[in-house]
């Protein structure tokens, strides 16, 4: 026991670590040192086993209490030390961790089912029975206007359909299914060796345990052919980039009379020439004459529901924000509509005539510093800055 490292040190967590911290630490170590990721590496194998032993103790409140009180003697695994097949009281935790790390499905689900009980060989579906079609996903680019107002689209797609020649069986007429020569009917093959072996779905038969004796010439044994299809899609108001629309039964066709899968359309919204969007709020820059801003007056602001009129008081500064409540993006889930925020942006007049230039010159002569309070405040801040510079010897 003296040569064993402290379990908290092994996982790299403090002694008061929470259950989530312990699980997260083990997850990272398992990802790093798993033997299948480090083939023919005895050090990785040892570190993986050490981390697994530490996790088994510290993830069990009773064992952790004994370990904290008595050390390794309190959780003695007996002759031969830690054994994967014997002392796991947290098999479900390990199954969850490994399915997260390596993906769910046959391999690790079957492995841990056999290791901790309650599993056994996976049951395979009837290879001659109906099989549902797969779900399909596609990306669709839409205009900003469509995202705000909604639209109706017709998409021309080519999707897998049940082969009309073989009815989705994949077999030529009169042919039958025979035992898979790769897995010998088990539906699974074993990968790896030594310390860790993994059962995986057979790549030859896809887990069914049988293969087609003579493939269909039209679909080449797949049971499916690709066919053109027109699909209508309604884009609701308020969608955004990343929104996912589900079309039930519009995915890949099923096999042997099975139902079709679903089609998921992921939207990508093109930028607007006018607005910028942040969640349900819209932002727009509104060009305003400095003369109108100085004297005050009305400006027109575009919104999804039409042109809105806002009044500017005299002396409105450049960059002033105007909030129009409920003039933004409609909520996709039926909640409150967002706001529209308009920013006043001064547009300096160009291509002045001689007369207009003279008028501006006369106006400039009539103005003094009191007409520009912001410039005065800025000049004061600059003066203080350089005074500090002199004091600091800069």
Helix content: 25-40%
Q: Strand pairing plus helix content: what structural class?
A: alpha+beta
**Strand tally:** 15
| Amount of beta strand | 15-25%
Poorly predicted runs are 83-92, 103-124
Order of helices and strands: HHHHHHEHEEEEEEEEEEHEEEEHH
Any idea what the shape is? flat
Provide the CATH architecture of the largest domain.
Answer: Orthogonal Bundle
Name the average pLDDT: 82
Number of domains: 4
Broad CATH class of the largest domain: Mainly Alpha
CATH homology superfamily name of the largest domain? DnaJ domain
Helical region count?
10
Oligomer: single chain
End-to-end separation:
65 Å
* Rg: 35 Å
Q: How does this structure look, described?
A:
This protein has helices spanning 7-11, 19-33, 42-58, 61-70, 91-102, 106-116, 144-149, 290-295, 354-366, 373-391, and strands at 136-142, 151-162, 177-179, 188-193, 196-201, 210-212, 224-235, 244-247, 263-269, 276-278, 281-288, 297-303, 306-312, 321-324, 340-346. By secondary structure, the protein is an alpha+beta fold. The chain folds into 4 domains: 7-116, Orthogonal Bundle (Helix Hairpins); 127-159 and 221-270, Urease metallochaperone UreE, N-terminal domain (HSP40/DNAj peptide-binding domain, Sandwich), CATH 2.60.260.20; 276-346, Urease metallochaperone UreE, N-terminal domain (HSP40/DNAj peptide-binding domain, Sandwich), CATH 2.60.260.20; 354-391, no CATH class. The strands form 6 sheets. Strands 10-11-15-14 form a 4-stranded mixed sheet. A 3-stranded mixed sheet has the order 1-9-8. Strands 2-7 form a two-stranded antiparallel sheet.
């Amino acid at each position: 026991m003296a040569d064993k490292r402290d379990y908290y040190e092994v996982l790299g967590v403090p002694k008061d670590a929470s259950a989530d911290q312990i699980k997260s630490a083990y997850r990272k170590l398992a990802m790093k040192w798993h033997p299948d990721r480090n083939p023919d590496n005895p050090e990785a194998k040892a570190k993986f086993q050490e981390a697994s032993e530490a996790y088994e103790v510290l993830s069990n409140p009773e064992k952790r209490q004994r370990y904290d009180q008595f050390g390794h003697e309190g959780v003695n695994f007996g002759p031969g030390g830690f054994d994967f097949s014997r002392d796991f009281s947290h098999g479900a935790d390990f199954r969850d961790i490994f399915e997260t790390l390596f993906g769910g499905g046959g391999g690790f689900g079957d492995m841990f089912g056999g290791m901790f009980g309650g599993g056994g060989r996976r049951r395979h579906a009837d290879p001659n029975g109906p099989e549902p079609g797969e779900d399909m996903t596609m990306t669709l680019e839409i205009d900003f206007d469509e995202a705000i107002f909604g639209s109706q689209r017709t998409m021309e797609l080519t999707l897998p359909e049940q082969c009309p020649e073989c009815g989705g069986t994949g077999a030529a007429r009169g042919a039958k299914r025979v035992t898979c020569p790769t897995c010998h009917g088990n539906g699974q093959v074993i990968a790896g060796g030594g310390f860790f072996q993994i059962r995986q779905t057979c790549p030859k038969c896809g887990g069914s345990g049988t293969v087609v004796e003579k493939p269909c010439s039209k679909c080449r044994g797949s049971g499916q052919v690709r066919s053109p299809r027109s699909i209508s899609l309604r884009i609701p108001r308020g969608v955004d980039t990343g929104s996912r629309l589900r079309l039930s039964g519009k995915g890949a066709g099923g096999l042997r009379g099975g139902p079709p899968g679903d089609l998921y359309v992921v939207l990508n919204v093109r930028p607007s020439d006018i607005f910028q969007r942040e969640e349900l709020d819209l932002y727009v820059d509104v060009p305003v004459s400095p003369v109108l801003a100085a004297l005050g007056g009305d400006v027109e602001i575009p919104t999804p529901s039409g042109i809105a009129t806002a009044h500017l008081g005299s002396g409105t500064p450049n960059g002033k924000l105007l909030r129009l409540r409920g003039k933004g993006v409609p909520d996709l889930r039926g909640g409150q509509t967002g706001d529209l925020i308009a920013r006043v942006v001064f547009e300096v007049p160009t291509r002045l005539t001689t007369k207009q230039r003279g008028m501006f010159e006369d106006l400039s002569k009539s103005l003094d510093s009191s007409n520009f309070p912001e410039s005065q405040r800025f000049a004061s801040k600059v003066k203080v800055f350089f005074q500090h510079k002199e004091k600091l010897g800069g």
